Amino acid sequence: MTPADRAAIASCVRESGEMPRACIGTIAVVCAREPGTAREGGDVACSRREAAVWRERLDLALSAFAQRLEAGPRSRLVALQRTWESYAAQKCAFAAEIQPPARAASMQAGCELRETALRAIEIERMTRRQARPGDARPQLHR
Questions:
Q1: What is the pLDDT of residues 117-132, one digit of tens each?
Q2: pLDDT tens-digit map of 6-44
Q3: Residue 85 in domain
């Protein structure tokens, strides 16, 4: 992961408006097509390179979101994230397991990239929507 990778994803997300999912693959696809990228394992390395950017975005978004929550919801967020991490790891391992051996690593890396990016997008969206501490909370009026 390079500063240029971070900038490419950030720029894409900013310009995508309500469609940040379109940014998934921004680095991996270009990287895999670059001259000199090894045929064997190159796509895996490229997917992992982009996944690192999304992982960083996810970690930052989780931290920002958690800071805005009170203790109870923050604890639930932490537990939920641990559960999500386990789910994503198992899902991607399974995706690899049902592929022919020659495609297994590529499928697992691609799955990990997609799952991490989608989670980062989800948490970033929640963070933007979350009222800041001290803001008036919505009230149910009867």
A1: 999 999 999 998 875 5
A2: 999 999 999 998 899 999 999 999 988 887 666 667 899
A3: yes
Q: Identify which of 22, 122, 133 has the alpha carbon closest to the alpha carbon of residue 62.
A: 122
Task: Please give the residue range of the domain that contains residue 20.
Answer: 3-129
Across the range 58-75, mean pLDDT stands at: 95
| 107, part of any domain | yes
Residue 135 inside a domain? The answer is no
For the stretch 65-82, what's the b/e string if a residue is b when 16 or more beta carbons lie within 10 angstroms of its beta carbon?
Answer: bbeeeeeeeeeebeeebe
CA pair distance 47, 31, nearest whole angstrom: 9
- Please state the rounded mean pLDDT for residues 92-103: 94
User: Residue 15 carries which DSSP code?
Assistant: H
Looking at the structure of the chain, the number of domains it has is: 1
- The answer for residues whose C-beta is within 8 angstroms of residue 123's C-beta and 6 or more apart is 58, 61, 62, 65
Instruction: Round to whole Å and give the CA distance between 123 and 104.
Output: 28
61: which residues sit within 8 A by CB, 6+ positions away? 120, 123, 124, 126, 127
